[in-house]
């Protein structure tokens, strides 16, 4: 990834961006389990406490495996999964069993019953990381709105709105990465940042609201909004 240096107020990132606790470590955003190897160079990292850094791992594995199983249509490790997902499923039979129970096939259609709380947990974590990294603006408070939906279930007009970068009415913090990106792309707004083609992209925009959007495996579209 092409990195942009942050010239914003460093005091904004003096604590864990997820819980406002101590900054004991650094966390990758996006999480590596959502990407393929070899990883892109210069992945964004944000300050985090040890508890938060480790505390999302199981939910992140669940979401990464769920998206891939839905994409493939099967939980069978031989069914053409991403290599990383295949390794996870191979060593975690309990996760395979759980996903298998969630899978339902009727009238030629395959559907999975999802654990929405776990998905929400990961999406919010990722959005907080992107807001902190791009906007130099941590948001540990609860968001005004959080949504996630597969592209295949999204209305075309809604998809067009989702794909269109927001036009900020107020510029982000001076020196932040988002401000520098906006200065280059103005007046279009914040462009999508591709962490890994086909695997993960995101955008973060600040104005009257803070909006973070992210897409997993060109399948799951997510949005988090703070007032």
What's the SSE blueprint?
Blueprint: E1 25-28, E2 45-48, H1 50-55, H2 57-72, H3 83-91, H4 93-102, E3 103-106, E4 109-112, H5 116-135, E5 145-150, H6 156-163, H7 177-185, E6 193-196, E7 200-206, E8 210-216, E9 220-226
Antiparallel strand pairs: 1-2, 3-4, 5-9, 6-7, 7-8, 8-9
Helix pairs in contact: 2-5
Shape: globular
**Overall residue-averaged pLDDT value:** 89
Order of strands, main sheet, comes to: 5-9-8-7-6
Radius of gyration: 18 Å
Count every beta strand, where a strand is a DSSP E run of 2 or more residues. Answer: 9
| Element-by-element helix/strand order | EEHHHHEEHEHHEEEE
Structural class: alpha+beta
How many strands, what sense, and barrel or not for the largest sheet? 5 strands, antiparallel
Proportion in helices: 25-40%
Distance between the termini: 29 Å
How large is the share of residues in beta strands?
15-25%
**Low-confidence parts lasting 5 or more residues at pLDDT below 50?**
none
For this entry, what is the oligomeric state of its chains?
single chain
